[in-house]
Amino acid sequence: MAIVLRPNISAIGPAALLPLLVALFMTVLMIANRATAGAAGPWAMQAYLSVTAFRPLVTATLIGHFSGLPRPAMHWPEWHVLARCGVIAFRATIGHLMIYIGTMTAGAATVAPMTYGQLLAAVLLGWLGFCEMPDAIALLGAAVIIGAGLYLRRIGRARERDAAVP
Q1: Which residues touch 133 (CB under 8 Å, ≥6 apart)?
Q2: Is 100 helix (H, G, I), strand (E, B) or coil?
Q3: 111 near 103, Cβ under 8 Å?
Q4: β partners of residue 98
Q5: Reduced to 3 states, what is the DSSP secondary structure of residue 131?
Q6: pLDDT, mean of residues 116-145
Q7: Which pLDDT score, from 0 to 100, does residue 7 have?
Q8: Across all residues in the chain, what is the average pLDDT?
Q9: Which value, to the nearest 10 degrees, does the dihedral of the CA atoms of residues 146, 148, 150, 153 take?
Q10: What is the DSSP letter of 67?
């Protein structure tokens, strides 16, 4: 991920590391999904995830509010902003349910490569929306990500095969 993004901390600041943090948390989510498989149904796991995420989000909000740092003026959003947030929340819930069900039945090593469609979508959006194509370094980073994922999938399938043999 770092090869693809080449985060420039001096130009962007610490925010350049946020995509790496998101990738780390997504990895932890997939592993946690697999570890809790069978403990509860998909809807219960979604509720647990929401309750778990609620605490750090509220804490971060309160720290930001009382930190004394300059912040933009806050106001109640218009209806279309709330509607968009609702659509995003709905899609994220369905997406997590699908990931949970996939990792519950097949394992994280099998489900993770399915997210590589995001790489293809990013390239297509960059090309169609911004007339930009990835350079050689970004393509190398994408190849490393995909190669590592496929390697993990291969190892996962070998373990499943070995476990199935009596």
Answers
A1: 123, 126, 127
A2: helix
A3: yes
A4: none
A5: coil
A6: 84
A7: 62
A8: 80
A9: -140
A10: S
